[in-house]
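Notes to self, Alpha/beta hydrolase:
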Amino acid sequence: MTQPSFLVHGHPVYAHTGGRPFDPSRPVAVLLHGAGMDHTVWSLQTRYLAHHGRSVLAVDLPGHGRSGGAPLDSIAALADWVVALLDAAGVAKAALIGHSMGALVALDAAARRADRIESIVLMGAAERMPVHPDLLASAAAGDPSANDLVIGWGHGPRGHTGGSAAPGLALIPGGRRLMAGITPGVLGVDLAACNAYATGATAAEAVGCPALVVIGALDRMASAKAGRALASRLKMSQIVTIKQAGHMMMTETPDATVEALRGFLDLRRV
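result:
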């Protein structure tokens, strides 16, 4: 199946559609990955969404995966890029599903462009997502140890003990392979953007659309407490806590993640 071809700010954008042609006239879900990652982190959710009532764009953000351009250095710039993507795709309004850095992007877009955002799903998110200076420095230098730290801390016990729900998929090695493919320095740009984003609380209070906050009970990067605090600032929020999940709930607990999305997005059961 041919993937849709979009240009945003003069650069090509790769978007996976979950195995169905993209149709902007249907309800649209845009999936936004976290720092140093790409659309493949959503592999166990995109197909379900696409076959149960949503048109799907699981995008590679600028400078990531197969998308062109340089990585953008602020959450606000990434949020504006998402709105430009909607323009390029002919989408009037979309649900944004974001993980970690992608969740901050979804939050900021919903706060400032309510006319374009139907609803938001925030996974592994907090009002502030500070990054240790040593990790910032290692990531900026392209040191592979930064990738290992992100993947190690990003997974809960299931990821470290071979508890993948998908047969043959080893979560930690898979995460390392994913991040090994990024251009050196991109992770540093992403982490610096997360570290600098200081307006999460204000943004959350400005969001007027329905919001779902998905919390990994074992998340060591955005704690359950921080997730609940974020949800408390949102006017129309729901919380789903996944007991066995760390920060990477999409791969650690894919079925529970789909179930959370299904209830919130009112996906068809077919």
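- The first helix runs from residue 43 to 50.
- The chain has twelve helices and nine strands.
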